[in-house]
């Protein structure tokens, strides 16, 4: 195989590997982000529950105040009974007493309802806090695993950068410029294999003459359709 073509294949593989490192790192970070997002959602739910519990307690306090006022009102009504002179006054006082008692009954029922609701919210709050603790513990463990994975990826990337740099030191400048021009638009597919007599960049079938030149590998051959640099893989590699 042409030496320049061999170098181009190596360079292309280095560039393809380099372009994959950042997505690998982002993928590792995404694993952690999922757990962090879940923890943030739990925190938001906890904050909402705290507000709801505070609102329930505020309503209960208002009901207690109202209940105290109603009890005072009943005591006043009881005292007024001693000063009733007419049946009309008696009926009015009885009606006032009946309304006060109904309001007391309603206030007691509302306090019972609020207490039950508060208890339910407190239980949910407790469950969420336990769940948050578990999530935060998981985040710590995953953070360590992700950091280790990213460290390994960066080590691997440094090795590839070093090998690429060593390759470029002995690279022919004209060939490198030629490669970079194709790479501007073809990205990581500037150098592609030919399989089943088709360019694996544009997937168009190449003619017999071009295919024969690719098989010989004596010269650098471009795809007649897209312009990418072509090469024939070893039989084992292609399989």
UniProtKB/TrEMBL annotation:
Gene3D superfamilies: 1.10.287.1490
One Pfam match: CT398_CC
InterPro entries according to UniProt: CT398_CC_hairpin, Oxidative_Scav/Glycosyltrans, Zf-RING_7
Keywords: Coiled coil
Annotated ranges, domain C4-type zinc ribbon: 198-230
Coiled-coil stretches noted in the UniProt entry, renumbered to this chain: 67-170
Domain CT398-like coiled coil hairpin: 27-183
PANTHER family per the UniProt record, alphabetical: PHOSPHOLIPASE C-BETA-2-RELATED, SCAVENGER RECEPTOR CLASS A MEMBER 3
Name recorded for this polypeptide: Uncharacterized protein
């Amino acid at each position: 195989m042409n030496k320049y073509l061999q170098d181009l294949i190596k360079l292309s593989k280095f560039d393809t590997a380099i372009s994959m490192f950042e997505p690998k790192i982002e993928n590792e970070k995404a694993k952690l982000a999922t757990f962090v997002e879940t923890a943030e959602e739990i925190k938001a739910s906890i904050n909402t529950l705290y507000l709801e519990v505070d609102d329930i307690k505020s309503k209960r306090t208002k009901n207690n105040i109202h209940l105290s006022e109603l009890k005072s009102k009943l005591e006043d009504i009881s005292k007024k009974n001693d000063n009733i002179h007419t049946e009309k006054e008696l009926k009015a006082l009885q009606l006032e007493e009946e309304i006060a008692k109904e309001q007391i009954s309603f206030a007691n029922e509302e306090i019972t309802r609020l207490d039950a609701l508060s208890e339910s919210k407190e239980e949910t709050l407790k469950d969420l806090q336990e769940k948050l603790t578990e999530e935060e513990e998981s985040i710590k463990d995953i953070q360590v695993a992700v950091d280790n994975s990213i460290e390994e990826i960066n080590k691997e990337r440094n090795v590839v950068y070093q090998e690429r740099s060593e390759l470029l030191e002995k690279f022919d400048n004209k060939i490198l410029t030629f490669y970079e021009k194709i790479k501007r638009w073809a990205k990581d597919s500037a150098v592609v294999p030919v399989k089943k007599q088709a360019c694996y960049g544009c997937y168009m079938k190449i003619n017999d003459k071009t295919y024969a030149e690719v098989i010989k590998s004596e010269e650098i051959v471009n795809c007649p359709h897209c312009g990418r640099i072509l090469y024939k893989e070893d039989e084992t590699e292609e399989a």
